[in-house]
Amino acid sequence: MNGQTRKLIVAGALFGFLFVALGAFGAHGLKTLMSAEQQAWFRTGNLYLGIHAMAIIFCGILHHLFLTRSIAMSGWLFLTGILIFSGTLFLMALGGPRWLGAVTPIGGTLFLIGWGTLVYGILKSRS
């Protein structure tokens, strides 16, 4: 397994761990401290964190099989999307400024670009 593959799989696994931990923390530790709107932000951020954690692992596995730069790039786009999309929602849910909501779509756009890049990488692979 090459370094790029290993980094993607480890990053995805770490985000998967964070997904479960934050889900439990949000459901049990924060629920009474947040408004319904803040809870919705937290749940949405965590949902997209979990989905894209698995997508990063998937990209790592596909990168190992096909060694296509586009596939690896899609994993890094998903990772950056998590940091921006989920990160801004988590911050707003925890009392951060609402203007962060204007930044959140940048993360969503990175998710879309990541999925498109993944499709491109699979279609261009030689195996």
Low-confidence blocks of residues: none
Structural class: mainly alpha
How would the global form be characterised?
elongated
Helix share bin: over 70%
Give a count of the beta strands, DSSP E runs of length 2 or more. 0
- Specify the biggest β-sheet: none
Descriptive overview:
The mean pLDDT is 95. It contains four helices and no strands. Helix 1 packs parallel to helix 3 and helix 2 runs antiparallel to helix 3. The longest helix is centred in the middle third of the chain and has 31 residues. The chain is 83% helix and 0% strand. The two termini are 17 Å apart. With 127 residues, it is an all-alpha fold.
